[in-house]
Write the structure tokens for this entry.
Amino acid sequence: METEKKRVSRKQDVPLAEAPRNYAPRGIAALLAPVVRPAFRKRAPAAAQLLADWRQLAGPELYARAAPLKFAGGTLTLGCTGPTAMELQMAEAQIIERLNLALGQKLVERLRFQQHAPSIAPSRPPRLAPATIEPPADLPDGPLGEALAALYRGMKSRS
């Protein structure tokens, strides 16, 4: 008869072995990995690159018409106007191919479009052709006077 009691798991009736404790110093990377890994699974570095470098990845035409709103599970959500969404839907395969080629991996699988008001840049009044602006007559001669005259013309043409 055994006088010693063995620890037994309840599900399989198999003896459990206790893991030996290791009190040796460990690097910080070993401690942070279990904490950080779930966050990296949610936000992949390539997805962050897609949202951050949208201007270069999309090209000038697509950049002007749509903005990335969200990327999750292979689906890139783009904000654009209704008519633009219909046009971009027709070119969805080409857009996905271009983005994946620029990223270097098959990251984008689908596009989703969400109606989003376009960001309208504040309009400035049209610039008239600059009239010849004469600098003050009391400027010194030589390179310093020429530089001051150019500065004066530049400041007056902007106002």
Remarks:
- The longest strand covers residues 67-72.
- The longest helix spans residues 143-158.
- The CA atoms of residues 33 and 40 lie 10 Å apart.
